[in-house]
Structures are given as structure tokens and as C-alpha cells.
């Protein structure tokens, strides 16, 4: 049975680890920030460097993937491998699978379920200038309804529109993002978000049923092309 990976989850696993203290530091002085860089490192590192990080007693690579990247499935596969080339192939295969899911077209029902999903990682949250963390579209509506005029204006002062940017880049709802960009005031944004919630809930399903192999890569920013290493 195929494992369902939502576009948002795939993008989460492919993201750069920007916190320097969480990046992987290799024995030979390299810094690894994401899975693609890990695959490239495994291709080019020498055996001595690889052996420093992998033995029968420990596996620094799989620990980092599980504890920092948070891809537990890949970490489990890597933990069973003691040789460089098989590990490289496992990581490369996983990267290509994630890129596919990050850029795949979903059906209307799948797309609705994905957009309504709560953002899991702190770096995916919309943190307002008042300190509130918005994690999903319902919380966005609540914030727009209750926040002060000053706070809303801070995020919606032309030419910026932080709300539209977050809705597009994190929730991957490009339709609502485009509408929010054209909104004039708080009332317009509340109405647009409320209408979108009603529309999405009408299509919502508990889980994706099948894949549509068309891509919507043109809409997804920041996702690399398939890796061949």
C-alpha cells in the first residue's frame, strides 16, 4: 500500500534547516542544510569521512534526519545501512519522491483537505506582530476578526500583504492568496476567508484517495527539480 505524503509534508521535509545549531556538520568541515545537500555529500565524501559518522553503534546521518528534518521513514531506512553508496541511493530516491509529492496536482477534495490541515512546525506558523501564532485558516479568520486595527494594518499596509503571502506559501491556497492581495480592508479579508472556509469544507475528505500525476510545480515556489545523483 502506497504511503500518502501531502504536498505540505513533502515541502516540510525538503526545507532548508536555517538554524545554524541544527545544521549537520560533517567530519571534513562541510555544512548540510537539507536532504538534497545530504544526498550530494554522500556522493562526494570519502570513506574516512563517512565512517566517522556511521558504524554499527551509531549513525549520525539517520539521527539528524529523524531528529531535525523529522522524516522518520527515511531515518529508519538509513539506520539499517552501513555503506555509503546504498545510503546515497536511499536518500536520493526519497528526495525525488518528496519533490514529486511537493509538486503534484491534487484533486479538489484532496486540495481542500490539504489547505485545511494545521501547520505543524513553528516556522510554518504565521506569527503576528502582537505575538499570536496563527496555524490554520480558521485561526487566520479569528485573528482578522479580533486583532486591533494597528496590528492588521501592520501586516496589510501596501505594498505588503503578509496574510496573502502566508496563505500562498504555507497553506498552498493560491486562489485565496490572490483574493487577499486585492482586499482593501479587514472586513473584505474576513469575508473572503469565511467564504473560502465554507467552500473548502464542502469538499473536505478525511484522506486523499488517489494520485493525479499532473504537476502544479509552476505554483509551488522553492521546490527543487528532481535530483539525479
Structure description:
By secondary structure, this protein is mainly alpha-helical. It has 2 domains: 7-104, no CATH class; 109-203, no CATH class. The chain has 12 helices and 6 strands. It has helices at residues 7-14, 35-44, 47-53, 60-69, 72-79, 84-102, 108-116, 137-146, 149-156, 162-169, 174-181, 186-203; strands at 24-25, 31-32, 104-105, 126-127, 133-134, 212-215. It has a two-stranded antiparallel sheet. It has a two-stranded antiparallel ribbon with strand order 3-6. β1 and β2 form a beta hairpin. It is elongated and about 60 Å long. The protein starts with 6 loop residues before the first helix and ends in a 14-residue tail after the last strand. Mean pLDDT is 84; it is low at 206-229.
Topology diagram in text:
Elements: H1 7-14, E1 24-25, E2 31-32, H2 35-44, H3 47-53, H4 60-69, H5 72-79, H6 84-102, E3 104-105, H7 108-116, E4 126-127, E5 133-134, H8 137-146, H9 149-156, H10 162-169, H11 174-181, H12 186-203, E6 212-215
Antiparallel strand pairs: 1-2, 3-6, 4-5
Helix pairs in contact: 1-6, 2-6, 4-5, 7-12, 8-12, 10-11
Amino acid at each position: 500500500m502506497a504511503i500518502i505524503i501531502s504536498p505540505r509534508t513533502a515541502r516540510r521535509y525538503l526545507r532548508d534547516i536555517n538554524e545554524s545549531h541544527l545544521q549537520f556538520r560533517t567530519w571534513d568541515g562541510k555544512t548540510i542544510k537539507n536532504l538534497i545537500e545530504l544526498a550530494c555529500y554522500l556522493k562526494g565524501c570519502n570513506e574516512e569521512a563517512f565512517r566517522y559518522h556511521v558504524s554499527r553503534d551509531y549513525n549520525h546521518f539517520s539521527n539528524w534526519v529523524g531528529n531535525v528534518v523529522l522524516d522518520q521513514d527515511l531515518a529508519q531506512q538509513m539506520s539499517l545501512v552501513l555503506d555509503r553508496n546504498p545510503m546515497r541511493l536511499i536518500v536520493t530516491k526519497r528526495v525525488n519522491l518528496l519533490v514529486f509529492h511537493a509538486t503534484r496536482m491534487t484533486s479538489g477534495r484532496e486540495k481542500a483537505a490539504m489547505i485545511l490541515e494545521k501547520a505543524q512546525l513553528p516556522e510554518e506558523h504565521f506569527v503576528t506582530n502582537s505575538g499570536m501564532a496563527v496555524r490554520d485558516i480558521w485561526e487566520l479568520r479569528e485573528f482578522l476578526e479580533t486583532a486591533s486595527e494597528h496590528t492588521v494594518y501592520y501586516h496589510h499596509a501596501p505594498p505588503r500583504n503578509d496574510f496573502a503571502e502566508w496563505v500562498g506559501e504555507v497553506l498552498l491556497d493560491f486562489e485565496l492568496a490572490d483574493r487577499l492581495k486585492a482586499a482593501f480592508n479587514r472586513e473584505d479579508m474576513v469575508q473572503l476567508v469565511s467564504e473560502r472556509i465554507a467552500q473548502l469544507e464542502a469538499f473536505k475528505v478525511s484522506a486523499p484517495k488517489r494520485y493525479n500525476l499532473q504537476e502544479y510545480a509552476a505554483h509551488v515556489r522553492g521546490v527543487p527539480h528532481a535530483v539525479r545523483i
